[in-house]
Amino acid sequence: MKTEKTPWRSPEHKARIEAGLAEGTREFTGGESALSAPIERRDLLKTAGAMAAMLGAASCGLVRRPEESIQPYSVAPEDAAAGKPLFYATAMAVGEDVTGLLVESHEGRPTKVEGNPLHPASLGATSARHQAWVLDLYDPDRLRRSLHEGLPVDPSRVAQALDDIRAKLLPNGGEGSALLLPSVTSPSLLRAVDLVRASFPKLALHRYEPLTLDTAYAASITAFGREVLPRPEFARADVILSCDGDFLGSDPFSVANTRAFASRRDPRHPRGMNRLWAMEGAFTITGAAADHRMRVPRSRIPAALAQLFIALSRLDAGVAAAANPALAERLRAWAAPAPLASRELNALAQDLLGARGRGAVVVGPRQGVASHLLGTLLNQALGNLGTTIAHAPRPFAGHPLFARGPFESLAALAASAREGRIQTLFILGGDPVHTAPRDLDLPSALKKIPSIITLSDRKDHTAALAHWAIARSHGLEGWGDAVTVDGRASILQPLITPLGESFGEIEVLTRLAGAPAKAADFVRRTWPSLAAEGAWRKALHDGILEGEDARVAVSFDGGKLGAFFKDVPPAPSLELSLDGDPALHDGRFANHAWLQETPNPISKHTWGNALWISPALAAKLGAKNGEVLAIAAATVKIPFEAPVWVAPGQADESVSLTLGHGQKTIGRLGEGWGVDGYALLSTTGSFTVAGVTLKRTGKHVVLASVQDHQSLEGRDLYRETDAAHAEARPHTHGEEHAPGSEDDGLVATPKSDAPNQWGMVVDLGKCTGCNACLVGCQAENNIPAVGREGVLRGREMHWIRLDRYFTGEASEARLVTQPVACVQCEAAPCEQVCPVNATSHSREGLSDIAYNRCIGMRYCANNCPYKARRFNFLDWHQESPQSAPKKREHLFDLFRESEAPVKMQRNPDVTVRMRGVMEKCTYCVQRINAARAAAPRDGQPLPEGSVTTACQQACPAGAIEFGNLLDPKSRVRRLKELPRQYALLGELGVKPRTTYLAAVRNPHPDLKGA
To answer: Span 573-700: which CATH code?
Structure first.
């Protein structure tokens, strides 16, 4: 079951393998030392003298100690019990993606986000963004007070200003005023907008957000005569074709999609294992999970779909009948470029035909209307509509706010501003000045508006230009509601009093409408069914209102499709594709240390982005990683440059760039990293730039990538098989043992005699590398961010790393991911070398660390074969990227103090470590202790499911199982008995408690080995 092809981490690593060169002898990255050059004798004496001075200072109280203070409640939170967290249901909206959440609160401080198991959009799981939402609440760069002409003002001044504006607009019905909104998911917010419109009937409504689902809705009007959104049922689909989408990663609804998709990535599933095909120009999380991936540039996706339809028509008369002769002839012309190889095309066509009514063709949101129509045509012809493809009506369809698409609406707003027809503009959320296409030149248009009032959570590009910047409340500070695209509603409740003098959208709009209202009362009145106190409390408790999903039957009308295929697509040229960032989305999370430091799942870059180009194109240009290229195209009006990352698996005719980076004003963390892709965005709403030329500039940028950090020296690590051989026993190296078994090696196994023997299994076939576990662990265990310089030195502190490997040739490479943390060895090498016994073994099989004993010798890290330990070279909780400069008060006050809001996020159940100690995964021992304390009887095995680790709880794929290895009925025990279970580096005899299930792929029989 070992992988047939040697995995490699980067093109440079692959070249070393092909040249027969051994792995480097250094186990670490070179940044593990605080000094970058050999130590001279003179410097050694200086260092020794300085250390002596510091030790002397410690004895006289000059060395800074962590400041601790306890402040009593003046009024205790309702139902609060000291030391016991409370959980509140709420929801988070990112664009049109609404996810139900449970937020953990300690004594009134929200500290951790989990998925709401009752909410269909989360089912108990989360993404990295959801996990990071709680730290966003405590961002010290958030606007705490509103600004008028750049100067702070009191809330009373804001209220008076809104009253004055209302009085000024009332006489003429709001003529010359406009309201700009981002994506709206709240019925209460829309009701407040309608109250404003009732007062000002001449108010112009506009909306803009760059990453939306409007293209899919526009296609549905042609296909079905109404605005509906296709909702694939991935748990029902046997064969899935993803077309330039990332439904498992950066696209909306990825959490629910991943949970449904992963449920069928099991060869033991009663309906069998599903098969995923992906056609895309740049690697995505979805493409990495695919059984077959085809490199197709974004602009060639319509041709590929037309080519697929023609191939299906030749094989099946029923498919051919789905298109009239005129449309079929036009599709043949569109298919002429033939982007798909005949072997892959035939296998895909046979696969889809063999799964009639059990397949799904999914088109990504960045594709145009033509691709969405072709996807609908294929689903109709294959009998998938109404079976694996459901449809949900657009929320709030028919409202004037949605009369135009976002780019069309913003262009109309800019035109009105230039013509002087707007005197007062309200902007409620978003940062359109930054995210608008540059050729629209929105800043110059807005400067012609005499009065701009924006509601913003920070001084971003729009707030910097506005006359009034009203501080916006965080989603965890105010009341609201939200509706999913499926029509499921949630109530958003606050978990903390606003940390500043901020306002919510409802408060601003109702004030402007002349009917100021408390947001809680206003939201409750939106839902008549919640008038009763019992119904209201149940909705708050469950986090979702009772009711069924809003799914509707649709009738496909293929007669209108021909109008979209009159013109033959333009000839192929080098193109540039723009996509939302997996962590930062459209840039709204750019000032977030956790997300900036979360490695990109594909490139493993942090703190910035890069231009992805294929190895073939890189060789043609002579470009290497980090080299800066100048980008030119007919639609690009300003000089633009970007550093390069040579991306295995990238289409040769395509280069890619993610959005959200390179911001100039958002906060101390988000400014300056990477390049601003919005400079390439077009007013047409196209996320593809055609006719691109690249030119070397001679400049170079060091990319903060972690892809070569903590290398495991080229050993046999990742294993996979196919569905036909999933029950075959993998190549093992003596990893079979029971907890506490007899010693069989040079290292004595500590006695493990407790009734709970903890272990973990990670299913590599389900893991998508989405980073939810990494950020969830960071939030739970008070793991600090180290900043870009820290990453460049190899000092990132994540207790979980997701090793990314490529297999095969660089051009057609496949990508695999393997999470690695401390595997809790029973015969742990780290325990044998610690000179102060800071790391030791517990009776329950955990390799524990006593932080107050550790003296930072790092012997344990040197002796760990998994490179799973982290040494905090600096006191990162003080010297944090989120910290503000602190005045130096005495000789040894060398660091910066974390600002009070950031401290509030920390989990009180986990020690906050100072510098100079080792850190690693602890199996969330604080959760184990809490479950043990809550158990009815001491000394008995804990019930199955009573302990869930942070990574397990966050994982949307359900790839992580944790439990008692002594319980024969536990899920983790059953997984460890599967034939594809194996121990990473099991040949070393260290007996890891965390083991893996070899990944299972499901290739088409005709393409095995391809």
So the answer is: 2.40.40.20
